[in-house]
């Protein structure tokens, strides 16, 4: 089985590219979806998070993401503590799913993960797709999408590795600056290349 990574940055259009790849027939595993599943009620993940971050459960016993986000977003130590709980659980689920897909005869899987480069997950993969836009475009889209002022948008961008730094680890670059048609054409080209690799 060939394993490819898909990454980008906040407001770069990674979700759009992920959807396009699915529409072309790709098997995409989404790290964000898995991250939500490992903290569902009754899971060891939720128990561990609630133990380390008291007060982050809502009245329904589910994780209150806004409360947790407020605790970890501006504090690198707290964010590292949360990642130390979640990343092994996400990794374990990812391995279980790729094994299941391999047993079904799936020949290639794309792992959609925002922190693919930061967490060195690209090592050992057969290639990485980076969804890229210039930083100013990224900031403008983020402000428009989330209703943020410039300072808040800058803070969110500063919490991530810049897209320009991620570029050196990319096998394929999908420039998402233009219209959707241009992005779609590039995604189709990348997918054809993956298929040609066997």
Describe it:
This protein has about 200 residues and is of the alpha/beta class. Helix content is about 55%, strand content about 15%. The protein contains nine helices and five strands, in the order βαβααααββαααβα. It has helices at about 15-25, 30-35, 45-50, 65-70, 75-105, 135-145, 150-160, 165, 180-195; strands spanning about 1-5, 25-30, 110, 125-130, 170-175. A five-stranded parallel β-sheet has the order 2-3-1-4-5, sandwiched between helices.
Quick tags:
alpha/beta; 198 residues; 13% strand; five-stranded parallel beta sheet; 9 helices
Biggest sheet descriptor = 5 strands, parallel
- Give helix and strand order, one letter per element, not per position: EHEHHHHEEHHHEH
The helicity comes to 40-55%
Task: Report how far apart the termini are.
Answer: 9 Å
Shape annotation: globular
Tally of DSSP helical segments: 9
Number of strands: 5
How large, in whole angstroms, is the Cα Rg? 18 Å
SS class: alpha/beta
Return residue spans where pLDDT drops below 50 for at least 5 consecutive residues: none
Classify the beta-strand content into a percent band.
5-15%
In spatial order, strands of the major sheet run 2-3-1-4-5
Mean pLDDT over the full residue set: 95
Summarize the structure.
With 198 residues, this protein is an alpha/beta fold. The protein has helices spanning 14-23, 31-37, 44-52, 65-72, 76-103, 135-146, 150-158, 163-166, 180-196; strands at residues 2-7, 27-30, 108-112, 127-132, 172-175.
């Amino acid at each position: 089985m060939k394993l490819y990574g898909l990454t980008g940055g906040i407001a770069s259009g990674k979700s759009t590219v992920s959807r396009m790849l699915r529409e072309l027939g790709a098997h995409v595993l989404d790290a964000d979806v898995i991250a939500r599943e490992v903290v569902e009620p009754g899971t060891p993940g939720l128990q561990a998070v609630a133990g380390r971050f008291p007060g982050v459960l809502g009245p329904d016993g589910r994780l209150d993401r806004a409360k947790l986000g407020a605790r970890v977003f501006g504090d690198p130590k707290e964010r590292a503590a949360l990642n130390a709980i979640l990343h092994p659980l996400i990794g374990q689920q990812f391995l279980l799913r790729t094994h299941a897909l391999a047993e079904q005869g799936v020949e290639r899987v794309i792992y959609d993960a925002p922190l693919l480069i930061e967490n060195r997950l690209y090592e050992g993969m057969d290639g990485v797709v980076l969804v890229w836009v210039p930083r100013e475009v990224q900031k403008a889209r983020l402000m428009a999408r989330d209703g943020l002022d410039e300072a808040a948008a800058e803070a969110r961008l500063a919490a991530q590795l810049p897209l320009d730094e991620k570029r050196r680890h990319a096998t394929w670059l999908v420039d998402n600056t233009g219209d959707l048609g241009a992005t779609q054409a590039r995604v189709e080209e990348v997918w054809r290349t993956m298929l040609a690799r066997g």
